[in-house]
Design brief:
Layout (H helix, E strand, L loop, with lengths): L1 H7 L4 H8 L1 H32 L1 H5 L4 E4 L14 H7 L5 E15 L6 E9 L23 E5 L7 H8 L5 E4 L2 E9 L10 E5 H7 L10 E6 L5 H11 L6 E4 H15 L1 H31 L1 H9 L4 H38 L7 H22 L1 H5 L2 H4 L2
Parallel strand pairs: 3-7, 4-6
Antiparallel strand pairs: 1-8, 1-9, 2-3, 2-8, 4-7, 5-6
Length: 392
């Protein structure tokens, strides 16, 4: 209390009014904490969706990609003519280029024996197409027909199969009606649309998917020679190739295309944003009810302060003091609960759910604004009160 007095330069009336009814005070903090938790979880889920959608792009070792003009992400990438990838090799500044083949295929889950779908990536084994730790140099292990690397952090109970692979065993399963032998693992992780993944050679990919045409890969991977600007090289590639069936763009630009598609054309972003708004509304209603009840209970005291010369602005500062206390009292436990929730979700769905500092600052600002607005609305009764009527 002495600290508050030093900061405010006066008796901390707001604090004393709040703690005068400790049950109501705790209920108010709990309401704010619930709103904070709801906002954090909605933002976390939305960011997890965005990040997992472009997670594979971030692990592809390419400065430029050649994609179908209607491609949105690596799961819905369509195909491009392979000749466009070959043409790119003739552009000044291109160091090397190769094709990547992507398809969702049916498989028998090795953990349960049930049918499911798995994302299969096919690439030439002497081309280091990925930046994933532990994967560089591992592609040579799948040069033999029918062999594959398995994503060790796929969604599902794959601990036994992963342990067997890492112990040197070579377990088998069925993919697209053909036997596949796992000879190694890598770590990428599941997404909202993909539970499991594996990497095979391009030749094994064609064997698993006979309808796939080697002349129409999912996309082309282009790496730029040192000293050249990827954006400038991408422009020169676009001048050479026909933009009706393929387009070249830098990897950051392709990632931005995928994120913008989710934000602007997918209902998911709206759903999560609506959840954030509802969290703010819930918190504002709780704080308003608490502060309005507190103002009503102390209406005579506020009227007396007005009678002795206190202005509405001074009285508003008392309510703002309460709103600030509720912001802090609700935000800290809400943040702690959100961190626990993030850990539970990440462990349960094996997808990244992190808490960046800018999100902490954003939610703190939203919480403070929510409480201050609720406090302003709660004080309307005081601003209109006439001391003569109260003490009549």
């Amino acid at each position: 209390m002495s600290v508050l007095r030093q900061v405010l330069g006066r008796t901390p009336l707001g604090w004393r009014q709040l703690v005068h009814n400790p049950i109501r005070f705790l209920m108010a903090c709990a309401g704010v904490a619930f709103a904070v938790l709801l906002i954090f979880m909605q933002l976390g889920f939305m960011n997890m969706l965005f990040e997992t959608t472009v997670m594979l792009q971030r692990q592809v070792d390419a400065d430029i990609v050649i994609v179908n003009p209607r491609a949105r992400d690596l799961i819905n990438v369509r195909t491009v003519p392979r000749r466009r990838v070959i043409q790119a090799l003739g552009v000044d500044g291109v160091r090397d280029a190769e094709s990547l083949y992507i398809s969702n295929m049916s498989w028998i889950k090795p953990d349960s024996g049930e049918k499911g779908s798995v994302l299969v990536l096919g690439v030439r084994t002497d081309f280091d197409a990925f930046k994933t730790p532990g994967l560089r140099g591992e592609l040579s292990r799948v040069a033999a027909a029918g062999t594959a690397l398995f994503d060790a952090v796929s969604r599902g109970n794959y601990r036994d199969i992963v342990a067997r692979i890492q112990a040197g065993e070579e377990p088998r399963t069925e993919v697209a009606g053909r036997n596949v032998t796992f000879v190694g693992t890598y770590r990428l992780g599941a997404t909202f649309g993909v539970d499991s993944g594996m990497i095979v050679s391009d030749q094994t990919f064609f064997a698993l998917s006979p309808r796939s045409d080697p002349g129409t890969p999912s996309l082309g991977l282009v790496r730029v020679a040192p000293g050249f600007d990827p954006e400038d090289v991408a422009r020169r590639i676009n001048v050479m190739i026909d933009g009706t069936d393929a387009v070249a763009m830098t990897m950051p630009a392709f990632i931005e295309v995928s994120r913008n598609f989710l934000i602007k054309e997918s209902p998911i972003a709206f759903i999560f944003s609506f959840g954030v708004i509802m969290g703010l509304v819930v918190g504002a209603v709780v704080v308003f009810q608490i502060l309005a009840s507190d103002v009503q209970d102390h209406l005579a005291e506020y009227a007396m302060l007005k009678a002795v010369g206190f202005s509405n602005r001074t009285l508003l500062s008392v309510v703002y003091e309460q709103a600030t206390i509720l912001t802090i009292g609700g935000f800290l436990p809400g943040l702690a609960a959100a961190l626990g929730g993030y850990a539970i979700v990440q462990r349960s769905v094996t997808m990244p759910m992190t808490m960046p500092m800018d999100r902490v600052g954003l939610v703190l600002a939203l919480t403070a604004g929510m409480c201050l607005i609720a406090g302003t609305l709660a004080l309307r009764r005081v601003s209109r009160v006439d001391p003569a009527e109260v003490f009549a």
